[in-house]
Design brief:
The structure holds three protein chains of three kinds. Chain A is about 70% helix and about 0% strand. By secondary structure, chain A is mainly α. In chain A, helix 4 packs across helix 9, helix 4 runs antiparallel to helix 11 and helix 5 packs parallel to helix 9. Chain A starts with about 30 loop residues before the first helix and ends with a helix. Chain B is α/β, with parallel strands linked by helices. Chain B is built from 18 helices and 13 strands. Chain B is globular and about 65 Å long. Chain C is about 70% helix and about 0% strand. In chain C, helix 10 packs antiparallel against helix 11 and helix 14 packs antiparallel against helix 15. The chains are: A mainly alpha, B alpha/beta, C mainly alpha. At the B-C interface, helix 1 and helix 3 of B face helix 8 and helix 11 of C. Chain A: Belongs to the binding-protein-dependent transport system permease family. Chain A: It is found in: Cell membrane. Chain A: This is Sugar ABC transporter permease.
Chain lengths: ~325, ~450, ~290
């Protein structure tokens, strides 16, 4: 969905792929065993530790440089001003003040929220319905899976450039098709009222495949007995879908929704390549604003301040979401 | 057996990681000052591979320069200035020794300490005294030190398709001179199915176009207040321009229906006969002919249409030497700039030699009119000398030249011009995309954004 | 993964009912058609477009067949737009990132799961924390870091290292590799250790050979994700000559012939699409296994 991948494990108990031996869930691994393992290494405990830390050197290096340090640096940068040539100087909350005075900030926040809402309302049912239907396919299921995941394989920039061509007002594919059935022309990317919707449609097309595969995995573990019991009770197929399938998918759905939301708030490549934030700033997202602050205006402090705000917003959003939905997942 | 602990391997693995980091350091250190006693400089300005003729001509120039200056090696790149990546490139140290930037940039670059003081080297040039001091002023800091040299200057005008004009029953030799004329002609062009008038709206071009059109009605986008520059984009000239454009878009419907228009869209449309008029400099010709395969006799350009301001926006390109260069590199760089860009505009013999060499290449563009970097007399002399080798239909540019001379050249806004343009893009896009857009509110909001930036840029 | 041949929502009894059969067949046909049009359609259109003439494209965007055919677009795009050059840049970036990601994930997973030196839980926690900080949020600070590496004091910006090394800081890879290692039978490792095998020999001769499936999954996703990466390579590599195809394409798009551009789009999507078709079983399985989203 966005150029930035937020990934979270879904199959919490690790289930190895293929012919690998049966898993032992870390949670159930008795503490004693862990201790025993350490003890077994024990005779050479010191060497063991030394070698262990040696193996940790690569991960420590890359995380120190490219994960932990940038997080700290970002926090500090938010109260600094630098032009990359002269040394940075502290400016207190000046960056935030300038940020809040910029009329573009509310616009970007509104656009981002609008995208998130649209992509949830329009984008949530698509993969769900697709996967429930595909789960019933018995013949050529693999072909269906390939087809549904194909758009997710195409590099996002390529998809966007392709869709930009489809969206062309006169010669574009979509308006031509609409023209055949006597509709349109729709102005797609050229009107502030439809530009974001157009971007959402492309994002759904590009993102649905991966979600379908995740739902399919969850669907294959729905116990058959539940369906049989429902059928014996005389429940129709749509009723079974509503009362058995959906509740069984609840946990996955909730995580997917959170991921989609986090992805939506980091939307960048699509508006950047489609419209550059236009027309009339109608597709300027928060991340696009961060990019403009930093790499167009050279206002690195302001960009860092905005990043900090975005991070805080995402953290609060996730926390609230997890808290509100905590009660729903237990099944 | 092999089942033995070999911690050495793990050590070497970590060492590898460190070595990888370390090579990163060396590979990115400022490369190539002196290889075998030679001074190596990288220069921007090489035409892209899509223009093989002009590219070859440039490479030939490089060879001739290297032959004349055996201690200098030139590495040309086809990178070109772009608002999005420029600041990052310069800060990251990957910019060429000689960069070429629009006239909007030198002051900011000087202030950030990103360019080298080349006063000494430039003063050694024999023609230093002849350079237009007004032009040089834009590349000086407050202390009078010089950080760049102009390589070309242009004044914006009306670019149009002579073929579309003819088709619409208009005389291609009598292009419109006022905005009212443009509006009337646009209607006639639209009646033939082509778009009458269109301007780019993205990547700061929308703001740039709006600024130019405001100049022709006597407006200015920045004003000095207590020693600092503040935005004055809400002036009457801007408002009138917006109203005029709005009338074309929504009353006459002669501007097409798109609102997200890149800088190349109008040129492509002109070249393919889908558009009548746009705004641009004479060098739009190059794109029109080489990139979009337009017929060179169809390209028309005339002086900027006026609305009482009797002015046009003049811009240009400035060559600067990046701050990391050594003194030898700076000297070589100034020599190169002089050879490639200044001499051909001053010395008829050099100009003819260059024109001869360039015109031998297929698709070369020779003979485009220029705004004088020195004085009008030298420029006229050069134009006459080069005319036999011109590959462009020179007569189609005469009217532009004589009429533009009568206008006042107004520079781009002095501080943060690109930021100002960037903030104005949405205003133009709003106008073209929404019928009843509240343009005054949009302008006021842009003014606020610009003033925030200007405040940051003038601490 | 074995096909789920058990019953789902619709039972075999349902499937025999005429009404269900008619409706279900209709749905199946519609679903198939929608997936062909939506999934394969745009790719086919790209293929068609890259074999067509620009004028033809503009005049008949709906034509199903490229006629008159113009096979010259692909070599022209390769030459004039330097697609081959940018493609090579992409390959270099992807290969290096893949190696760094795999190397870091294996060493870290091995240390955290099998060797477990003292205080390694702190490291584990530190890695997991970064899962909750979206990468785009530290974009600017990461950029300043590669411009001036602390302690080294040098810039790796504008070199492939600026893409390779940050790719290694991928908490999710480490998490799944560690979880996989956690599930390996300790008895084997224990036996080897008793035989006098050192940590490295155990890693090389026991853990790695058993981990092929997970390494394949991590590799495939590393390659596919790097191939798609846009924002960071654009920021980290400002020299347009060194940029990968994904970053170069939008710039090319403005100033080139449309048919050539579409040929360029085709070339850019072919490698990941072919990779996917070749490994589609592993990839769809991998998505199920990890819940990774691309």
């Amino acid at each position: 969905m966005s150029s930035v991948n937020q990934t979270v494990p879904l199959d919490r108990p690790s289930r190895p792929v293929g012919e690998a031996p049966a898993p032992r869930q870390p949670g159930r691994q008795p503490g004693g065993q862990r201790g025993r393992w350490r003890a077994a290494w024990g005779s050479q405990r010191r060497t063991g530790d030394w070698i262990g830390w040696l193996f940790l050197v690569p991960v420590l290096l890359v995380f120190a440089y490219f994960a932990w340090w940038p997080i700290l640096r970002g926090l500090v940068l938010a109260v600094q001003q630098t032009n990359l040539v002269q040394p940075a100087r502290y400016v207190g909350l000046e960056n935030f003040q300038r940020l809040f005075a910029d009329p573009l900030l509310p616009t970007a926040v509104r656009n981002t929220a609008w995208f998130a809402l649209l992509s949830l309302v329009l984008g949530f049912p698509v993969p769900l319905v697709l996967s429930v239907l595909m789960n019933e396919i018995r013949r050529a299921a693999a072909v269906f899976r390939v087809l549904v995941y194909l758009p997710a394989v195409v590099p996002p920039v390529v998809s966007v450039l392709l869709w930009k061509w489809f969206y062309q007002p006169d010669t574009g594919l979509f308006n031509q098709v609409l023209g055949l059935v006597g509709l349109g022309p729709v102005r797609w990317l050229d009107s502030p009222s439809t530009a974001m919707v157009s971007i959402v449609l492309e994002a759904i097309w590009a993102g649905a495949g991966a979600t379908v595969l995740i739902y399919l995995a969850a669907l294959s573990s729905v116990p058959e007995e539940l369906y049989e019991a429902a059928e014996l009770d005389g429940a129709s197929i749509p009723r079974r879908a509503w009362h058995v399938t959906l509740p069984q998918l609840r946990g996955v759905i909730l995580i997917i929704l959170l991921l989609q939301m986090l992805g939506a708030f980091q939307l960048f490549a699509e508006p950047f390549v489609f419209t550059g934030g236009g027309p009339d700033n109608s597709t300027t997202t928060v991340l696009l604003l961060v990019f403009q602050y930093a790499f167009v205006d050279g206002d690195y402090g302001g960009a860092a301040a905005l990043s900090v705000l975005l991070a805080a917003a995402l953290a609060i959003l996730s926390a609230v979401y997890l808290r509100v939905t905590r009660g729903w997942t237990s099944s | 057996m092999r089942l033995r602990s070999r911690p050495m391997l793990a050590v070497s693995a970590s060492a590898l990681a460190l070595a990888v980091l370390a090579t990163g350091c060396s590979s990115n250190g400022d490369s190539g000052n002196a290889s075998g006693g030679k001074t190596v400089i990288t220069v921007e300005g090489l035409p892209a591979t899509t223009k093989p003729g002009p590219r070859q001509a440039f490479l030939d120039d490089v060879k001739r320069f290297e032959a004349a200056n055996p201690t200098i090696t030139i590495k040309p790149t086809d990178a070109s200035w772009d608002a999005q990546s420029f600041a990052a490139k310069l800060a990251g140290g990957s910019a060429e020794t000689v960069i070429q930037v629009p006239l909007t940039e030198p002051q900011g670059i000087i202030q950030r300490g990103q360019a080298l003081d080349i006063t000494k080297q430039v003063k050694q040039l024999p023609e230093y005294g002849k350079l237009d001091q007004h032009v040089l002023a834009e590349e000086k800091d407050t202390g009078g030190k010089l950080y760049g040299l102009p390589v070309n200057e242009y004044a914006l005008g009306l670019v149009y398709s002579r073929a579309v004009f003819t088709k619409a029953g208009l005389d291609p030799d009598q292009p419109p001179v006022t905005w009212d004329d443009v509006r009337a002609d646009a209607k006639k062009i639209a009646a033939t199915g082509a778009v009458g008038f269109s301007i780019p709206t993205t990547d700061n071009f929308g703001g740039w176009m709006l600024t130019t059109m405001a100049y022709t009605r006597g407006g200015r986008m920045e004003a000095q207040q207590g020693g600092k520059w503040v935005s004055s984009v809400t002036n009457d000239a801007t408002t009138q321009t917006l109203q005029w454009l709005s009338a074309l878009r929504w009353d006459d419907k002669t501007t097409g229906t798109t609102s997200v228009i890149t800088s190349t869209d109008p040129v492509q449309a002109l070249a393919t006969g889908k558009l009548g008029m746009s705004i641009g400099a004479p060098n739009t010709y190059t794109q029109f002919v080489t990139t979009y395969h337009g017929n060179k006799d169809d390209f028309g350009v005339s002086a900027m249409p006026q609305g009482g301001g009797n002015a046009t926006l003049s811009g240009g390109t400035v060559a600067m030497v990046t701050a990391k260069a050594t003194q030898q590199q700076a000297e070589a760089a100034v020599k190169w700039i002089d050879f490639e860009y200044l001499q051909p505009q001053l010395d008829p013999t050099v100009a003819v030699a260059q024109a001869k060499a360039q015109s031998a290449q297929e698709g070369a563009v020779v003979g485009l009119p220029a705004v004088p970097l020195f004085d009008q007399a030298s420029t006229d002399q050069i134009a006459a000398a080069v005319k036999p080798y011109a590959t462009v239909p020179v007569d189609n540019f005469t009217k532009y030249l004589t009429d533009t001379r009568k206008l006042t050249y107004v520079s781009e806004p002095p501080v943060g011009a690109q930021d100002l343009y960037h903030a104005l893009d949405p205003v133009v896009q709003a106008l073209l995309s929404q019928k009843n857009a509240d343009l005054n509110a949009k302008l006021a909001s842009a003014q606020k954004t610009i003033n925030g930036t200007l405040q940051r840029l003038q601490p | 993964m074995t096909e789920n041949l058990g019953r789902g929502l619709i039972s075999s009894r349902d499937r025999r009912r005429p009404a269900v059969r008619v409706v279900w067949t209709a749905i199946r046909v519609a679903l198939g058609a929608a997936l062909v049009v939506g999934g394969a359609g745009p790719l086919y259109w790209t293929l068609k477009g890259s074999l067509s003439d620009t004028n033809q494209l503009l005049r008949h965007p709906l034509a199903l067949w490229p006629w008159p055919m113009r096979a010259g677009n692909l070599p022209d795009a390769w030459q004039a737009l330097r697609i081959g050059h940018f493609l090579l840049n992409t390959v270099v970036l992807v290969a290096g990132s893949w190696f760094v990601q795999l190397f870091v994930a294996i060493t870290a997973g091995y240390a955290l799961s099998i060797l477990r030196p003292r205080f390694s839980r702190v490291v584990h926690a530190g890695i997991m924390v970064t899962l909750f900080v979206p990468g785009s949020v530290s974009l600017v600070a990461l950029y300043l870091t590669v411009l001036h590496l602390p302690l080294f004091g040098v810039s790796i910006a504008n070199s492939p290292l600026a893409v390779w090394l940050p790719a290694g800081a991928h908490a999710f890879n480490i998490l799944i590799v560690k979880q996989f290692f956690d599930g390996l039978p300790r008895e084997l490792i224990e036996a080897a250790r008793v035989d006098g095998a050192g940590p490295l020999a155990i890693a090389w001769r026991i853990v790695l050979p058993m981990s092929r499936p997970i390494l394949a999954v991590v590799s495939l996703f590393a390659v596919m994700n790097e191939w798609k990466n846009f924002l960071w390579p654009m920021v980290a590599i400002s020299d347009s000559d060194k940029q990968p195809l994904a970053v170069a394409l939008p710039k090319i798009a403005g100033a080139s012939d449309q048919a050539l551009l579409i040929a360029g789009l085709l070339i850019a999507s072919l490698p990941p699409v072919l990779l996917f078709l070749a490994f589609q079983r592993q990839i769809t399985r991998g998505v199920r296994f990890t819940g990774l989203k691309g």
